[in-house]
Structure formats: C-alpha cells, structure tokens
Design goal:
Helices cover 63% and strands 0% of the residues. α6 crosses α7 and α10 packs antiparallel against α11. The protein contains eleven helices and no strands. It is mostly helical and 224 residues long. It folds into two domains: 122 residues, Serine Threonine Protein Phosphatase 5, Tetratricopeptide repeat (Alpha Horseshoe); 50 residues, no CATH class.
C-alpha cells in the first residue's frame, strides 16, 4: 500500500488538460460567431450629439427674449438644450410648442435641421421653422434666413429669400436680425465683406439687447 501511486487531480492529467483546451476553444468559437452575427445586423441611425461646431451654426436662442404663451417651458427647454440634455429639452420645447410658443417651434426646427439630439430630419425642421416664422418669431426668421443663404444641411440655397427673412427679423425689433446681418457682413456671405458694416449691425444688436455685442465689436475693431 505504501508503494501505491498517489492519484493526480483529473484536471492535472493529460486527458484533463486536453478537455480544458477543447472547452476553451469552443467558447472562443461561440464568442467569435456571436460577434460576427452582430456585425451583420443593420445598425440603427445614431442620434448625434451637439458639437462645438454645431453650436456655432446660426444664432443661439436667448431666454431673455422669450415671450408668452409657453414662456417658462421654452426657457427650461433652452437651458436643457444648452446643457446637452436633449431628451429633456425636446420634452419642454414640444410642450411649449403645443401651447403656441413660436420660439420653441423655431428651436425644435433647428434641432431637427442639424440633428441636435434627434435623428436629423430636414423636412420636419423646416416645417417647424416656417411655422415659427408665420407666428412672428424673429429668431426663426434669422435662423431660416441664414440657412437659405448657406444652402447647407439639406436646405436649398436661396440667398434672396434668406436676406428677405433676415430683414423681416430686423423689423421686429429684437437683436436676432441685426446679429445675423452682422455675421453676413463679417464673412462676406451674400453681401460684400465689410467689417465696418458688421460693427454697425453689432452696435444695433447691442442696443436691442445682445449682451455680447461689446466684446464682439472689440474683436472686429482689432481687424481694421
């Protein structure tokens, strides 16, 4: 009995090691097949997030210029939008839009045009913006006018229509139209480039409530 061989655990035997290798290879094979099947499945369109370059397009909606009806929901929607909390922003803005707030409709339109937190839908975005224009939103006039002038993001290039809308916005007294025109003169889009005229429009934007007018004017004056 003293000479009886001590039995090794099964997993240390040659047969045990072979079984473990086979099991491991089988598991790896199943994992590989599963990954291949998933890669062949159709990929749903991702909801893009707003980027700094996106945020620089057009003019941001200022909560200080928002009016009734649906003022508070619109303001909350703007805050959520700027914090990139898109689902909450959409909920607030849709509620305000149902109450008849034109600026809420305009911002919803911008979200769909650029795909800010929603699946990009140019047609739907234009419908929101056009409705907001009809309801008298100078913000919508400036945004839609700028979109027509740029002729990008699925929107037709119609510079004359765009300039008409921006001039309509100027006639409404708020700063959006002045700011849009200042940006056009600064860049020389649809107008002859003129830093002096850009400054002039920024000054008028400042007189109508644009809080960053002074800083932007100083930067432009450095280019003269």
């Amino acid at each position: 009995m003293a000479d009886e061989a001590v039995k090794k655990p099964w997993y240390k035997s040659g047969l045990g090691i072979a079984i473990l290798v086979i099991v491991l290879l089988s598991a790896l094979g199943l994992f590989y097949k599963r990954e291949m099947r998933q890669s062949d499945e159709p990929v749903q369109e991702a909801i893009p997030e707003i980027t700094q370059s996106d945020n620089s397009r057009g003019i941001p909606l200022d909560e200080d210029t928002v009016e009734e009806p649906g003022k508070q929901d619109t303001i909350e929607g703007i805050k959520m939008y700027m914090e990139e909390k898109y689902e909450e922003a959409k909920d607030f803005l849709e509620k305000a839009a149902e109450e008849g707030n034109a600026d809420a409709k305009a911002l919803l339109g911008k979200m769909y045009i650029f795909g800010h937190g929603v699946v990009k839908d140019t047609k739907k975005g234009l419908e929101y913006l056009e409705d907001a224009v009809e309801r008298g939103s100078s913000y919508a006039m400036s945004e839609l006018g700028t979109l027509y002038i740029h002729g990008k993001d699925g929107v037709e290039h119609a510079a004359d229509k765009g300039m008409e809308l921006i001039n309509r916005a100027i006639g409404h007294g708020k700063y959006y139209g002045y700011l849009a025109m200042a940006k056009l003169y600064e860049a020389g889009e649809s107008v002859e480039q003129s830093t002096e005229k850009a400054i002039s429009y920024l000054e008028q934007a400042g007189e109508n409530g644009y809080r960053y007018a002074k800083d932007e004017i100083e930067k432009l004056r450095e280019k003269l």
